[in-house]
Design brief:
Blueprint: H1 27-33, E1 38-43, H2 50-64, E2 68-73, E3 86-91, H3 99-108, E4 113-117, H4 122-133, E5 137-142, H5 147-156, H6 163-173, E6 174-184, E7 191-199, H7 202-209, H8 213-221, H9 230-239, H10 245-251
Parallel strand pairs: 1-5, 1-6, 2-3, 2-4, 4-5
Antiparallel strand pairs: 6-7
Helix pairs in contact: 1-2, 3-4, 4-6, 5-8, 6-7, 7-8
Length: 261
């Protein structure tokens, strides 16, 4: 209610699934979507386009592989039609009472891929992490701004006594982190996607296990094949005239990088 009157919010469900290319995501996102197992995190604050990115990744799986995909969403924003894969979509509040209950039920059906596009609680996070360890591919959204803080946030969800074990599990299961922001275009035509991608390798896993995510990871990321640094992506968007330098500088880790050629 609003001042004694009924108030409603309506959300249009788009029947068209955007592709990785159309969203101007890097090629590594396509590769991460086709991982056989492990944990792929899609992160960003509210309104950063996470659901569109996740939908495009489900589209990659659906069009290229023969798998069973179960999505748990709150709410459903894109409707997937089966192609090579079978995609089962469940909405929290309508098809299931909670994300955790839906996840546990889905695991009993032995799917290949589980997609969780809702803010996870500890029970959901722990179940998803263990499922990734066991050989499922888990694609999960998380409301955090960048890869290091995402991994730190996951670790702090657990009691301190479990932190070392959780970091070990996370290091073993992680395949990548896609962090994104939507920024206003210079011409006022809409938003441009700025994206940062962490790809897990031995050095990244070592930083996670040693609990050095926030002070080591950014320096390691740039040397990992396939990874994309936010500041490099922002510089490209500025050079192409898609966003202003001032807009990029507000979200850059190091604004000086934006001036380099």
């Amino acid at each position: 209610y609003q001042r004694g009157f009924i108030e409603g919010t309506f959300h249009a469900i788009d029947q068209y699934i955007p592709t990785v290319t159309e969203l101007e995501l890097p090629d590594i996102v396509h590769t991460l979507a086709l991982s056989d197992s492990g944990l792929v995190l899609v992160t960003g604050m509210t309104g950063s386009g996470k659901s569109s990115t996740i939908a495009s990744m489900v589209g990659v799986i659906n069009e290229n592989t023969s798998k069973v995909v179960v999505t748990i969403e709150d709410p459903i924003e894109y409707v997937h039609e089966n192609a090579l894969s079978i995609v089962k979509q469940r909405e929290v509040g309508n098809d299931t009472l909670s994300c955790l209950r839906a996840l546990r039920h889905a695991l009993r059906q032995d799917p290949d891929v589980l997609v969780i596009d809702t803010v996870p609680d500890l029970g959901t996070m722990d179940t998803a992490l263990r499922a990734a360890e066991e050989g499922y591919l888990i694609i999960m959204s998380f409301p955090t701004p960048d890869p290091p803080r995402t991994l730190s946030r996951i670790a702090t969800m657990y009691p301190q006594a479990q932190r070392a074990l959780v970091l070990h599990m996370l290091a073993g299961a992680l395949r990548g982190v896609i962090s994104q922001k939507l920024l206003p275009r210079l011409d006022g035509s809409g938003s441009a996607l700025a994206c940062e991608v962490l790809v897990a390798n031995d050095a990244i896993r070592g930083a996670i296990r040693s609990d050095r995510m926030e002070d080591q990871m950014m320096s390691i990321m740039g040397s990992v094949p396939g990874a994309q640094l936010l500041d490099v992506n922002l510089r490209r968007l500025v050079q192409r005239g898609e966003i202003s330098y001032e807009t990029a500088a507000l979200v850059a880790h190091n604004p000086e990088i934006l001036r380099r050629r």
